[in-house]
Amino acid sequence: MNLNDLIINPKFKEKLYVGFLGQSGYLIKTEKTTVLIDPYLSDYIENTDGSNDSKMKRNFPPPIRPEELQGIDAVLCTHTHLDHMDPWTLEKIQSPFKLYCSRAAFDQNPVKLNDNQRVYMEWDETYSINELDIIPIPAAHYNLSDKNGEPDCLSFIVMVKDVTLFFWGDGIPYDGLTDRLNSYSFDYFFAPINGRDWFRNAKGIIGNLSSRELAVLCSDLNISCVIPNHFDMFDYNSEIPDHFINYLNKFSPNQNVKILKHSEVIIL
Predict the structure, then answer these.
(1) In 162-190, which positions are buried (b, 16+ CB within 10 angstroms) versus exposed (e)?
(2) Domain ranges in the chain?
(3) Would you state the CATH architecture of domain 3-267?
(4) d(C-alpha 147, C-alpha 61), whole Å
(5) Contact yes or no for 141/52 (Cβ under 8 A)
(6) Other CB atoms closer than 10 Å to residue 115's CB: what's the count?
(7) What's the first-to-final CA gap in the chain, in angstroms?
């Protein structure tokens, strides 16, 4: 099954599906509910009518156009960056979805959505979307909060059908994170590996945890399968997945790992 099958096929019985959109974007589908996480389904960043950043060209076309998406109940966005909260994607989805994000993220983004479409999330609160329970926790990118001490960048713990998932859009490790995550056993743990360095910082590109850091975290957490992301969309801000595999072999050799291709679907 690929992503288009997941969108078109109306029959979903007693299963949970996660489709990979590329970068840090996912589609979660159950029999009752369809949720997107950090969907970047346009060329807003490189387009001259958008952000006009010529160095951030997509490596592959969007696996589906946002106007083709149907029955979307909610979109979760981890933070304001345009490859995670894409205005053209959000504004073209035809379904009357709810956007879940922090107030700070929305206020920093050019997207235009009606007030009744927005749900501003607070740390450690539980948000229920039909049978899905979502708990946002702080994500340090690089700060844990905005200038007023309020939630800014988030990660999502998603629980459904006795399955626990973790979606880390952008961020780096911080004090207390491992203790917080050790309260859970994760079936799938989705996290970035593109890292950070002086050269990208000098260009204003805020980085993420590295392959090595994620591998070390895996050794400290209870994760059935780790799925690295944030390495496939832009050559300018990428990583080689084999580097992550090498670090896993060193720091967490028994860790199960899966490298997803865009449009690939996991069936749980």
Answers:
(1) eebbbbbbbbbeeeebeeebeebebbbbb
(2) 3-267
(3) 4-Layer Sandwich (3.60)
(4) 36
(5) no
(6) 5
(7) 13
SS3 track for the chain: CEHHHHHHCCCCCCCCEEEEEECCEEEEECCCCEEEECCCCCCCCCCCCCCCCCCCCCCCCCCCCHHHCCCCCEEECCCCCCCCCCHHHHHHCCCCCEEEECHHHHHCCCCCCCHHHEEECCCCCCEEECCEEEEEEECECCCCECCCCCECCEEEEEEECCEEEEEECCCECCCCHHHHHCCCCEEEEEEECECCCHHHHHCCCCCCCEHHHHHHHHHHCCEEEEEEECCCCCHHHCCCHHHHHHHHHHHCCCCEECCCCCCEEEEC
Tell me, what's the pLDDT at 61?
96
| 43-62: average pLDDT | 95
Give dist(CA 63, CA 118) in Å, integer.
26
- The answer, as to whether pTM is greater than 0.85, is yes
The pLDDT of residue 198 is 87
Distance, in Å, from the CA atom of 262 to the CA atom of 158, rounded to the nearest integer, reads: 21
Stretch 199-228: mean pLDDT = 93
Q: Verify cis geometry, omega within 30 degrees of 0, for the bond prior to 142.
A: yes
Based on C-alpha coordinates, what's the Rg of the chain? 17
* Averaged confidence pLDDT in the chain: 94
The identity of residue 140, as a single letter, is A
For residue 157, report the phi and psi dihedrals to the nearest 5 degrees: -95, 120
**Cβ atoms of residues 172 and 152 within 8 Å:** no
Residues 131-165: pLDDT tens digits? 999 999 999 988 899 989 999 999 999 999 899 99
